[in-house]
């Protein structure tokens, strides 16, 4: 076998199906070490084809993972949890590369996704998630780390994995609160520290993990005391570099910038690859208000990595450089840097994190646009085609306010505006029509997207008809009306009567037409007509309500109160 997926789980029946789906065709086997599930986790895993190993939980992640590892048979092991999904556009290419790679481990980029898909507070990092089974194992009861087996020699060799990443949902607020994960991590880290456990060569790891747990809880000053203690214990090597890295990041967060500079320089002294040390120092110097000096340090950063597999996304470097260039008065270069950021890292979480970093010291995309020369517009407008609509829309709005109805901006809007809220699609549609471009109407395009909810498509269709008299919108609304769920009919009828009253009659007839599906989620024709007739009567459309009611089996119609009785089924 080439690749085994190695997992430890407990009560994960809700999260596992999506995780298993992401591993389909990627791995040759899935080994699930169950630590005592009481829900359907075990049976679900077996049905999915996983090999389930009965286990136990003793507050020791490394012990549990290594027990699972002993059941794996692949040359390579992928470490993945139930709340993670492996994302790889070209699995065949990845497997082919894995069979030829010459290192011990691969650092995989991990996106820690928030609850809100539009949330910009997304953390991205890399960790050693793929490794050779016969060379490595885990160490540490909390924040367990992959390192060489005790009888293996030489430093662990790791390289970044390109073309794939892991989406992690486990730190979404709802999940964190439900399982109290942050406090659990602190409890486990403090317990490990009390036991004074230290794998040879990893002295200081226990103190470091307590610091990491406290920092995650926002207790930065407490965290720093543990990072300082870890530095006194750590020996030169991977542990020392890790402690210096986390300590430097924490010092920047709390604003102890002089100390952050000292730690960054110590990190360089202990590293063959100096990039992360220069990066940390540049962060501190930038926040000291010295953008020119920070740019000199950023210029020495090739990429955000070191010899241990710690790798930060290049997008973070681009964003920091863009903000620093703007602070140094180089708006044109800052625009170029952000365009490169989007071109190199168009994935949603990477761009969101980068834009958050760009704004970390009070700078925003609008700040850049306000001073950006027009000769950089082509680059940034082209970049809008690469990012998701939720990011492209506010960026394009800032460019529009600065430069007006430039063709580059409107051309980009044709691509992204059909996927934003109808109110925003209306805005871009109006702007396109103002220069004679009615055909590529984002509202009409939105109404034609099969993947969208029927109600959302209808709203776009009748908005185009009401705002611009576009008969394509009316035709699409009539076409889509029979697909509405029976429970939605009353609210949708009320909405269309307000937003596009001229369409109400045709829309109601279409929604109640004989051509509506006979059964299923949209309801039977009789139930739909009854709901529509009642809604129309309540809205004051008595004549139309009667006409719809007359179509009900066994009804001879009527008007006024009789129509109301027919429509609602009320007793006389």
Summarize the structure.
It is built from 28 helices and ten strands. With 572 residues, the protein is an alpha/beta fold.
Describe the structure.
This protein has 572 residues and is α/β, with parallel strands linked by helices. Among the domains are: 1-175, Spore Coat Polysaccharide Biosynthesis Protein SpsA, Chain A (Alpha-Beta Complex); 180-312, Alpha Horseshoe (Serine Threonine Protein Phosphatase 5, Tetratricopeptide repeat), CATH 1.25.40; 485-572, no CATH class. It contains 28 helices and ten strands. The protein has an eight-stranded mixed beta sheet with strand order 3-2-1-4-7-6-10-5, sandwiched between helices. It has a two-stranded antiparallel sheet with strand order 8-9. A hairpin with a 5-residue loop joins strand 8 and strand 9 (145-148). The longest helix is centred in the middle third of the chain and has 17 residues, at 238-254. The protein is globular, with a radius of gyration of 29 Å. Mean pLDDT is 83; it is low at 117-121 and 554-572.
Descriptive key words:
eight-stranded mixed sheet, alpha/beta, 572 residues, globular
Write the layout of secondary structure elements.
Layout: E1 3-9, H1 16-23, E2 29-34, H2 41-47, E3 51-54, H3 61-69, E4 76-79, E5 84-87, H4 91-98, E6 105-112, E7 123-132, E8 136-139, E9 145-148, E10 158-168, H5 173-179, H6 181-195, H7 205-216, H8 220-233, H9 238-254, H10 257-269, H11 275-287, H12 291-298, H13 314-327, H14 331-344, H15 348-358, H16 365-371, H17 377-383, H18 389-403, H19 407-416, H20 422-434, H21 442-447, H22 454-468, H23 471-480, H24 489-499, H25 504-511, H26 525-538, H27 542-549, H28 561-568
Helix pairs in contact: 6-7, 7-8, 7-9, 8-9, 9-10, 9-11, 10-11, 11-12, 12-13, 13-14, 13-15, 14-17, 16-18, 18-19, 20-22, 22-23, 23-25, 24-25, 24-26, 26-27, 26-28, 27-28
């Amino acid at each position: 076998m080439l690749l085994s997926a190695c997992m430890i789980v407990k009560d994960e029946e809700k999260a596992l199906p999506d995780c298993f789906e992401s591993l389909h065709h990627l791995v040759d086997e899935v080994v699930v070490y169950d630590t005592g599930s009481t829900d359907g986790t075990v049976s679900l895993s077996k049905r999915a084809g996983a090999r389930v190993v009965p286990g136990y939980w003793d507050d020791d992640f490394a012990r549990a993972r290594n027990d699972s590892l002993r059941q794996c048979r692949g040359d390579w092991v992928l470490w993945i949890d139930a709340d993670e999904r492996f994302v790889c556009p070209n699995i065949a290419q990845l497997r082919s590369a894995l069979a030829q790679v010459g290192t011990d481990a691969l650092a995989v980029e991990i996106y820690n996704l928030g609850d809100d898909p539009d949330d910009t507070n997304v953390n991205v990092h890399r960790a050693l998630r793929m490794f050779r089974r016969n060379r490595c194992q885990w160490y540490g009861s909390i924040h367990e780390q992959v390192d060489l087996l005790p009888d293996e020699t030489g430093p662990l060799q790791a390289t970044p994995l390109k073309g794939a990443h892991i989406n992690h949902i486990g730190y979404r607020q709802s999940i964190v609160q439900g399982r109290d994960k942050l406090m659990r991590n602190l409890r486990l880290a403090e317990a490990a520290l009390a036991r004074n456990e230290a794998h040879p060569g990893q002295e200081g790891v226990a103190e470091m993990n307590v610091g990491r747990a406290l920092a995650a809880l926002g207790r930065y000053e407490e965290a720093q005391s543990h990072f300082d203690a870890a530095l006194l214990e750590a020996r030169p090597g991977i542990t020392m570099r890790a402690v210096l890295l986390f300590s430097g990041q924490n010092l920047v967060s709390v604003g102890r910038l002089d100390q952050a500079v000292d730690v960054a320089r110590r990190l360089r002294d202990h590293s063959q690859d100096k990039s992360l040390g220069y990066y940390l120092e540049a962060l501190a110097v930038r926040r000291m208000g010295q953008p020119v000096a920070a740019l000199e340090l950023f210029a020495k950063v090739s990429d955000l990595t070191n010899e241990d597999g710690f790798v930060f996304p290049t997008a973070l470097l681009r964003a920091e450089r863009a903000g620093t260039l703007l602070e140094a008065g180089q708006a044109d270069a800052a625009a170029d840097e952000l365009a490169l950021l989007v071109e190199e890292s168009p994935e949603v979480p990477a761009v969101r994190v980068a834009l958050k970093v760009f704004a970390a010291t009070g700078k925003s995309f609008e700040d850049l646009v306000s001073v950006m020369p027009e000769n950089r517009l082509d680059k940034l407008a082209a970049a809008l085609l690469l990012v998701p609509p939720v990011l492209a829309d506010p960026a394009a709005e800032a460019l529009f306010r600065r430069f007006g109805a430039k063709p580059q901006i409107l051309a980009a809007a044709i691509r992204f505006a059909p996927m934003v809220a109808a109110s925003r699609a209306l805005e871009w549609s109006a702007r396109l029509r103002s220069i004679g471009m009615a055909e590529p109407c984002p509202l009409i395009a939105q109404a034609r997207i099969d993947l969208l909810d029927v109600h959302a498509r209808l709203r776009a269709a009748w908005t185009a008809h009401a705002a611009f008299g576009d008969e394509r919108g009316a035709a699409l609304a009539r076409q889509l009306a029979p697909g509405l769920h029976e429970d939605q009919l009353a609210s949708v009828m009320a909405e269309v009567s307000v937003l596009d009253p001229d369409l109400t009659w045709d829309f109601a007839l279409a929604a109640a037409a004989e051509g509506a599906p006979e059964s299923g989620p949209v309801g039977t024709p009789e139930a739909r007509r009854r709901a529509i007739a009642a809604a129309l009567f309540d809205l004051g459309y008595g004549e139309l309500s009667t006409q719809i009611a007359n179509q009900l089996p066994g009804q001879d119609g009527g008007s006024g109160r009789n129509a109301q009785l027919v429509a609602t089924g009320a007793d006389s």
